[in-house]
Amino acid sequence: MKKLCVAALTALFLVAFLTSCGITNFLFRDMSNLPEGEFISSHDSPSKVYTVNIYLCGGGATTDFSIRGELVCNDDESVKNIYWSYHEREAEVDWIDDETVTINAKTLNILDDVYDFRKQ
Fold first, then answer.
1. pLDDT tens figures, 77-107
2. Do 23 and 47 have their domain in common?
3. Residue 104 sits in which domain range?
4. Among 6, 53, 61, 88, which one is least packed by beta carbons within 10 Å?
5. What pTM does this model have?
6. What is the enclosing helix (H) or strand (E) of 17?
7. Average of per-residue pLDDT values in the chain
8. 85: enclosing H helix or E strand
């Protein structure tokens, strides 16, 4: 009977652990699961190869607004999220060069960097 209880508790712990890992990965590490939001503005790189689209995401009654920055490669129309910040309603976007953009004082190399407030 004692072995059965230990096995059941071990199995329950394992299921709970794997579930929490999956939820954490889905909600907090993957920027592809962000809300779409309301389109605010679009900003082209100096050569017009890339565009950063800015969206205002409302969290409803219990959370504040967030800004999502989406990078679009105009050559192949691929899209990826590069900026996600909480407690913001506006975005100031400045391109430094064709691969570097500043969004609300956070400088990102668009090929390598992403800003996610949840990881700061």
1. 899 999 999 999 999 999 999 999 999 999 9
2. no
3. 36-119
4. 61
5. 0.73
6. helix 2-24
7. 85
8. strand 78-86
